[in-house]
Amino acid sequence: MKTPWLGMRTIKTAIVVFISYVVSSFMHDELSFALIYASVIAVETSVVSGVKTGYNRILGTAVGGFIGFIMTFVPLYGGLTLALGVVVTIVVGNLLDIKKATAIAITLVVIIILGSKGQSPAVYALQRTVDTLIGILIATGVNLLIYPPDQMKRVRESFYEFRDTALKVLGDEIEYQIEDGLMLLTNDLETLKSNFDSLDSEISLFKKYDEQEFEYYKEMVEVCERILIYAEALSLSEPGVRMTQDNHGRLIKILQRDIIHSGFVTPSESTRDDLIYNYNLAKLIAAMEKVMRKKVFQNRID
After folding, report:
1. What is the CA radius of gyration of the chain?
2. pLDDT at position 294
3. I want to staple 42 with a disulfide (CB 3.0 to 4.6 A). Which of 54, 173, 223, 259 is the partner?
4. pTM of the predicted protein model
């Protein structure tokens, strides 16, 4: 279920907010912003990334709650107490290597020091931690039960995108020395790697993914990295380098377009620059041949 302006993540976020509102109204006299906010930020494109985001928030809330509670007993002027509390929180965050949770911890330290409407700091900190945990559990449950994200599909689509971009830009780079497309290729590779990392974090938790297909895309990510490396190496070649006829023929076949080139060279006639150029070109072609090769998984061809 997807439209240009309304995706499934948007719909699931609305569902999470509604459930959190109902739960919060039963738990407290006043609605808990912490519970609702925590549930919203835990709705991610990946179930695991959502849990990690929620974990960081719980960790930050716990650390911030403890430090904030301690700082309420420091007999200093309010501004100095705030400044000292922030410094202590940052130092603790660095020592515990929880930098992603530090900002959340600082926020809670400030809230506790400035006051919590007459509540004791300990009760307030504990309540915010519990609210955050419940919000994350709600978001995780919705993410799992309602149209859970298909990470394999994302990897598949981003792989196709990289492959299509490579077919478009490599010919222009080799024939016309146009290097602008390398940035597009770099961006597509980063997207592919990010999506694969999300799949990798879920593959051991969910049995719905095909292990063979996972291993295939794991290999393809490495091949795509090599394609970019060799493409960048070709862009550094000296002007006037010559291509071998063998590379030229393979290049036309893989890119499915004519590549105008004059002055072919044989290995025995090659200069040092020619040899380097054709070595990188041959490696690039071999990598492209791999990503263009069709693969069958459970009655589907990739």
Report:
1. 27
2. 83
3. 54
4. 0.68
